[in-house]
């Protein structure tokens, strides 16, 4: 096992630059949970530090004992037969073992198997943020043995009051049951995480409350569970990049703007309940410098007032009705201040993609950042703007905040400007992006996510998914959440290939005539080789012309979503029956066939080999004569 020590405080600050984009497949209203973790850091001895891609923990339990640095807090934990076994005697006991070190961005994965359970509701978990001594509060990603239940998978917190707060639930495609290995993983970026069940994303959360020093752990409740191949890998900070096979990050444009008055707290609440991962809103200052959430430069369109926002005081803006224009049920909705919006997100859940709207001075940007910091939301706000100066000021004043550049048309070199402005994301008009999709790959290679605006149809979402966009800013957030759910249920588009004939490990004699048979899916091209030479699916193998021994068929297929390979090795065996087939089908002179058959029947293999050599190119075709002679000599040695 490899355990690397915790990073310095400077490195921790750097790790806050990215937060995993969350993906919620069901309607969730996240609840606030109070309490900070008073964790005890797990000590390590090496001065080295990890970085993105570094494996921080790798344990296969081959030593026969608990690994060094693993702390069995409670319950029974032991290593047997190359696995870690945890036993919880009662459903009221949340037994745990802790390990690793504090990380902001990481992937924890393990092979888990329920050995025995007291009921299908009992569970095992991956500990996401756990004090090394096991004290509350802690966060876990849970799997029940009855995994297909509506709450078969969960993200949950155990509070300091020993109460449960379950923020997200989902069902798995099949039941874990008992005696079955399941490969599970959780990817964490700050307060956000993805639950991955047997290689497929099943659920997301944006409700984690991270401690300053929590580590990783394994949990068992009312069961005996075995674990194997536990790894912890540090991830790059930019969790906004969409992993292969995962759906979009859903960003609700001005809140649920298709269902409620834009840029209001009710629009924010509806978007949150609809499963949006992020709320996108606009910020501008009042005459007296208070940042308000408003898109237009005037209040005319979205309130019952008139005038430019910068010419109205905060008191005047707060007196306006911002809901009646949209519908009578929204009469009395107000234009929220940035502080009010952030407080709502902090206490009720959610993240903010905040557009600094229009030209702002450095002091005005500083006021926005002060509000974000005062509301303790620096880890949950992403700043974007069309205004380059606003982004430069933000980076100077708050380098911990991720930045996105809004563009109506694409830059000649998006990667260059992303580097210049320290961007986490490049956020172009979706139609401009679809017209030039080749910009996505170099941005991803540079570690920059791509967020497209404002796209409101399934046809456009499908096209953006194909070119690799990471997030969609949309007026139809709830519909995109549903589209994402369907996306997760689709059959994999990855190419697959299998060689069905000859089967791997087959032993064939000369009399058999197998055909190369390939089963492939999602493949546009299929390339087949036999012993490194080009061949083809459907080709009948002439075993009379192959040397005795091992031969290998290799197949490579490719499609729009990748490539796949397969190999099958078979052996051409030497037998009396096979040699007889060679002689009878050799095309030799009838007299030679009679002579060779007589020697074969009497097991005169050495004489047969000599005869075939002597008549090669005369009474027996040369190519087949050499094979007959070689097989006869092999039989003579048996």
TrEMBL record:
It holds the Pfam family GDPD. One of its GO terms (molecular function) is phosphoric diester hydrolase activity. It comes from the Bacteria. Residues 248-484 form the GP-PDE domain. GO terms for biological process: carbohydrate metabolic process; lipid metabolic process. This is Glycerophosphoryl diester phosphodiesterase.
